[in-house]
Amino acid sequence: MSTIATPPVSRLPNRRPLRTALLLGGLAAAFSLLIYAGGLFEQIQLLFTNLLYTDSPRSSQVVIVAIDDQSLGAYGRSVASWPRTLHADLLDRLSGAGARVVAFDILFDLPTSADDAFAGAITRARTSSAGTRTVLAVASDVSTTYPDRHAMLIPAAPLRLAALGHVDVSADPDGAVRWQPLHVEAANVDYLALSAATYLSYLRIPPGSFAQVVKFSPTRVTLTAQRVIPVDAAARMLINFFGAPGTYPIYSYRAVHDGEIDPAVFKGKIVLVGALGATGVTDSYFVPIARGSPMSGVEIQANALDTLIENQPLVAETPGAQIAVILIAALVGSAFMTRLRWYQTLAVYGFTLIGSFLAASVAFSLAHTVIQLFHPVLTLTCVATGALIISIIREARYRQMVQTLLATATQLSEQRLILIDTLDNVATDVQRLLGCASASIWLWDDDQRRLLAVYNPSLIADTKANAAFESRELLIERDRLFAPLSLHRNAPGKPIGVVAALQPSAHRFDPQQVTLFRMLADQVAPALENSRLYTRQVQQTDLLEAILISTPDPILVLDAAHRLIRTNEAARALFRLESSDAQSLRAILSSAGVEADLIEGMLKALSTGESQRDVAIGAQSFLMRTAPLQRAQTGWVIGLNDVSLLKEFDALKTQMVRMASHDLRNPLGIITGFTDVLLTDKSATALAADQRYYVQLIDEAAQRMLAIISDLLNIERLKAGRLDRESFELGALIEQVVGEYRAGAESHAQILRFEHTIDLIMLNADPVQLREAFGNLLNNATRYTPDGGSITVSLSMREQNAMVAVSDTGYGIPKAAHAKLFTAFYRVPSPTTAKLAGTGLGLSLVKATVEAHGGTIQFESDEGRGSTFRVTLPL
After folding, report:
1. What distance in Å separates the CA atoms of residue 602 and residue 594, rounded to the nearest whole number?
2. Mean per-residue pLDDT for 844-872?
């Protein structure tokens, strides 16, 4: 590598005005384009665009119901703690007033007991004479472990019958909100912006049809044929702001709720409900039109909604147009200004700035285009300052030459990414650039929490390197230089290490060498960090390869098209694969003799994201586990765990349970038969009182054993999938079960109610098993509810599912017992219920019965406050 020399400084010729103008204009344009390409001074650029925003006519369709200090004082300082019956009452009042759409800029992600009341209000609003549509807010969850993965806070399940729209907005580097993503994807669900969902609801488009109506492309989002919205690469819409905070009609939540506002103001309107003007509420942002005053989130949503209603989305100036404006300003401005005297140049400069602003204002008002004024103004300023710019360019040219040479040296060191080679190249660059005797390098080790000498450690003491590292500043000691290796010199954060240079024969470093050394340190830091990361990656790759090879379970690595890209020896032996094979998963499984329907099931498991599945390959049984290859799901990893022996053990266990249960039933039947004879014998040889007591104990124990055996056999029968299905009316079956327990409940002064909202629910299922399951739930409810309590059985239907709930006011279940509640033979360890007899199989049998019918069972319970068990059965 050649030694870097100081480049000569060229002189700017000024004998010919045209050449001077062209050179000056070219330099000014180059400077502005460099600023533009580097994205520098973004906050100043945005400040210039703020000047274009002025009050403009808005639609008359949007009003705001504000959660203000008056409302917080009336209902509580935390909106999340408000009972949702308040929102239900508000929605009833607004729908009764004839509101067309009511959109809540409030999160309802945590379920409450009043959700059903709120959901009922949403349904009533939709079926009212005004046909009021409801839109609820969702928002990105900023507490997720991986910020690059979207996770959404969505309304509680009963409320999802309303349209959903996200309230995320996007702030620019100056902290002001100008953008709103028109859609956000989370967990394979596409959520439209609240403004877009509200606009579509305003057009009476059902939420279920949003996906069919809205079309996305890289540059635009088509909401309807009349609303084609330009967006950037992140699908963000540039919001058009129609006025400062307070522009829209605002009514207090409390006043509207209490009926103090004339209902006529809401007729046919879009009503946005959200926090506004409340002390301590943080949902406010700076916006370009507010001139430093924050605007509430609900007002921003109102402006975004009016942008869609008025069909006035803003369009950012294209890079091509911006570059053209810079070039025209540079060349035309220099052509005129270089021919004028200094005061004439100042006058032209001033008039040109005014004309540029007027032209940008006209483009904003008429074409809704946001012109970037900063770069044309910067270009004209550069041209107008002439000699100063030339001086700056000379200095910048020299620096650019030096940096180019340093970058070339860095690029040479980056050609080999192994850390030891990069260290050697960096040390060579230091010696050749500065002409010094030697160089040393230290790197920070996160594991040991200290600097480690990695190159020439014996030449220079570590204490000086630590001093430079801690101070983050260049350290000069006569013939020695220590520079911290920072990835971003002006950014906070600990350096990655220190580089040192040692002059021969104790010579001093001159100022130019010090400057070059500082610049070199800034240049080589990324190279060293990349090499260190690459070396770690190589080591991790080698480790993963060793793990893959040594794993005894078969592993298949597939691409997104389910083609094999990697495997291990166990998989090659199982499927008889050659190392060079690149077959599809379907072909691999077919060649291994896997049945066609099982192959389809495995492929479906990949497409639906199912994490595990049982698979039979030949005589072996495997548990197939799948996982995405990367976060972007560019492939799949399939692991096959041999569970053949476990399957045999399970089959043996099932057979033993059946044999034991069958063999026990006969002798137990004999015992209960003879005890019944003894207990009913009224002859002279009848039992004495104490003998009768003992026989009763024997009979009760035998009956309990028979019940346990019956439950075990039923559980095994359900696991085997044996159901005697027939069509029957579910409400009638539950009515019969309730009737069986009514007398027992009344004997304990308990109130037993059966509530149902739908008269006829037909179900194709096993009525005997379901009757026993609901009987177990009612039996538990009556047994574990003290005298004078109440039990409520409710039946409803939701989304093609029958919903059965059994609620009681009994002893409740401790939190510690929730996880094991459905485990066979498990009984809740509570002193209150310890005296009550039971086998611990009832809830296990209920769960097996419900799941055998494709349903689910859930429960809610607090100790001392009762329990609710909810069963969902598909129709």
Report:
1. 11
2. 87
Kindly state the tokens that stand for 81: 């703690």
- Burial annotation 39-73 (CB, 10 A radius, 16+ → b, else e): eebeeebbebbbebbeebebbebbbbbbbbbebbe
The pLDDT tens digits for 21-66 are 778 778 887 888 888 887 787 778 778 788 888 888 888 999 999 9
- Whether residue 64 contacts residue 250, with contact meaning beta carbons closer than 8 Å, is answered with yes
The region, left, alpha or beta by phi > 0 then psi within -120 to 50, assigned to residue 711 is alpha
More confident: 784 or 264:
264
Q: Is the pLDDT score of 681 beyond 80? A: no
**Closest by Cα among 252, 237, 364 to 301:** 237
Task: Choose among 137, 73, 133: nearest CA to 104.
Answer: 137
Q: What is the dihedral of CA 193, 197, 200, 206, to 10 degrees?
A: 140
Quick check: 115 and 87 in contact, CB under 8 A?
no
Q: What DSSP assignment string belongs to 562-623?
A: SBEEEE-HHHHHHHT--TT---BHHHHHHHTT--HHHHHHHHHHHHHT--EEEEEETTEEEE
Task: Give every CB contact of residue 465 below 8 A, 6+ residues apart in sequence.
Answer: 440, 442, 451, 453, 482, 498, 500
Single-letter residue type at 187: A
The residues that bridge with 753 in the sheet, in sequence order, are 792
Q: Which residue has the higher pLDDT, 763 or 46?
A: 763
pLDDT at 655: 58
Q: Which of 639, 618, 619, 637 is nearest to 627 (CA)?
A: 637
The first and second tokens of residue 786, run together, are 């003290």
